[in-house]
Amino acid sequence: MQADSLKTSILLIYTGGTIGMIENPVTGALENFSFAQLKKHVPELQKFSFNIDSTQFSQPMDSSDMDAKAWRRLVDIIYRNYEKYTGFVILHGTDTMAFTASALSFMLHGLAKPVILTGSQLPIGVIRTDGKENLLTSLEIAAAQTPEGKPMVPEVCVYFENKLMRGNRTTKLNAEDFNAFRSYNYPDLATVGIHIRYNQNAIHYQEKEQPFEVHTEMNTNVAILKLFPGIQETVVRSVLSISGLKGVVLETYGSGNAPRKGWLIDCLSQASRRGVVIVNVTQCKSGMVDMDRYETGYQLKSAGVLSGYDITTEAALTKLMYLFGQGLTVEEVRLTMLHPLVGEISMP
Q1: What CATH number does domain 9-214 carry, 3.40.50.12370, 3.30.565.10, 3.40.50.1170, 3.60.21.10?
Q2: CA 76, 248, 117: angle at the middle one, nearest 5?
Q3: What pTM was estimated for this model as a whole?
Q4: What is the pLDDT of residues 16-28, one digit of tens each?
Q5: Which CATH architecture has domain 222-337?
Q6: Is the pLDDT of residue 137 over 60?
Q7: Residues labelled catalytic
């Protein structure tokens, strides 16, 4: 449904990344974003009937430099402007977009407005850029309303190449194709062709209105440990012995399996007893961890490793950061990791 232009306004937030780079026609060099340049290269922005304002990081960031401090800046911008705008579109580099989308989904508690992250594989000023369509459609979706006049998609999303996806379900799958992101274990929230078709059964709508709050503390004393054939005990012990370590995302094989090696189970058991929260996430792009299916998975469960079910690595890592950042006890974190907070996990 079209937005009510008298009541709708979108804040465009530029953090950095390829989409905001403009090619200088004289030198051929890529220059950083300015909204004036953007309007010049995307004149279609003038055709929207609703208001679009913009703000940007003082120093644009390559997405590989994104961290918890940058996430806090984004959350602060949204919090300070929450009552002024009906939706937010964040221009972001693609490399860590899934991490940022996952983190924001946890940090923006009680969110009832769209926060859509998008970007591009080619700069906005290049003839074949994918950035123009990604930007224009993200703005249109951010402004879309239900027949009751409420936001159509009131959650943190990623829009890329004709697909709107729940942010904490996305993973970057391709470094070159325009179809760079995928939501493997959860349906797309909308598909875009001639029409924008919303999957309202998949979109999260609050049953009752909650106060909008932000939680900016993220404890980054976490790590990812990916298993591989031939992994050495010294590697595992080194990771699990990091000083101050709070949580680990353990990337296992298939449905949550690991080598049947005594030293591995011993390492995991010792870390778990010390209070390190270890979450089992499959290395497969699609599917769910089931540690009761095979003995190789059951041994991890016996060692105190938690099932991540179908959560992505990005969401598991940022959820651990978020929960420990709230000052929860180890047992509270373990319990909460097993249950969805904002649709990031499907229970079997």
Answers
A1: 3.40.50.1170
A2: 35
A3: 0.93
A4: 877 777 666 677 6
A5: 3-Layer(aba) Sandwich (3.40)
A6: yes
A7: 18
